[in-house]
Write a structure and sequence with these properties.
The chain contains 13 helices and eight strands. By secondary structure, the chain is mostly helical.
């Protein structure tokens, strides 16, 4: 499915790491890692991420402090802001990220709009979509990840649950059919073992995405592309990638996000080129706005 190509690894496909990173990853068994990749250090009240599980399931060994900025994450009142954006994006809520969407998230992260646009363009792709139908996000159900998850509750979907209406893609209906069937066994396991939205973030990353539980994660993934962008941005911040993005150190960012083979695949160059293009476009828009104002 080409809409999911740009993330580099489709759900469940683990990257082959090389060098020191690969050796570190190989020393950690997936079964020994908490599903959300976050633990609480008894000697430190703040969370630390020791083993980062990337959105698609690949494990990265890194140590960063999980700093939740006041008023940003967890977003206990996320819906208030989301409803405002949904009204502003009423015609493309499930279809297209707007300049205002990018501006809000860039401001939250403290990065340039062109920088966050560049990352989204390379990671999500120009034609990547977040939804198969209104309120029905693009998903990939991964049975291997599903089997690894340990659910906190035993809640199940009702036996009458069916695939959401409006999905025109046969692939989409197949993925949702698998998810619905798994939900009838265990809701939490099914949702955590699924990869969600335009960035294909694994449900097991709900805590690193700033959500209070897996239910909030799924609700936000199903709400709008703006919320999918918010979750993606929070994941970047909480897994130690934000400093490199602020500095526009594309090699450092790509190494953390795309893995040891980032240079071979040219991710840092692609992001740098995308940033330069968006920076130029933004400058052109500002000049045009100034010209319009002076003509009045």
């Amino acid at each position: 499915m080409n809409k999911l190509r740009s993330i580099g690894l489709i759900a469940g496909s683990a990257a082959v790491a090389t060098g020191a990173m690969g050796a570190a990853m190989a020393s950690t068994s997936p079964d020994s890692v908490e599903p959300d990749a976050v633990r609480e250090d008894a000697a430190d009240p703040e969370f630390r991420v020791d083993t980062i599980i990337m959105p698609w399931g690949e494990m990265r060994i890194d140590t960063v402090q999980l700093n939740l900025a006041p008023g940003q994450t967890p977003r206990s009142n996320w819906r208030d802001e989301a409803e405002i954006e949904a009204r502003l994006d009423s015609t493309n809520r499930y279809k297209t990220l707007t300049d205002n969407d990018f501006r809000i998230v860039a401001n939250e992260l403290g990065v340039e709009v062109a920088a966050i646009k560049a990352v989204v363009r390379i990671e999500a792709g120009a034609s990547c979509e977040g939804f198969w139908a209104p309120g029905v996000p693009v998903i990939n159900f991964d049975r291997t990840m599903y089997s690894r998850m340990k659910a906190a509750t035993g809640k199940k979907a009702p036996s009458s649950a069916t695939v959401p209406a409006g999905i025109k893609s046969s692939y989409g209906r197949s993925e949702w059919s698998q998810l619905i069937a798994a939900r009838k066994v265990n809701m939490d396991k099914a949702n955590m073992g699924t990869f969600w939205g335009m960035f294909q973030i694994g449900g097991f990353n709900w805590k690193a995405c700033g959500c209070k539980d897996i239910d909030e994660f799924v609700e936000r993934m199903s709400y709008s592309e703006f919320e999918q962008l918010e979750l993606f941005a929070t994941f970047i911040r909480n897994t130690g990638m934000l400093p490199a993005l602020k500095e526009k150190n594309w090699a450092s960012f790509a190494r953390k996000y795309n893995g040891a083979s980032y240079a071979k695949r040219g991710y840092h160059t692609k992001m740098a080129n995308a940033y330069a293009r968006f920076k130029k476009e933004d400058a052109s828009k500002q000049d045009s706005t100034k010209q319009d104002s002076s003509d009045k």
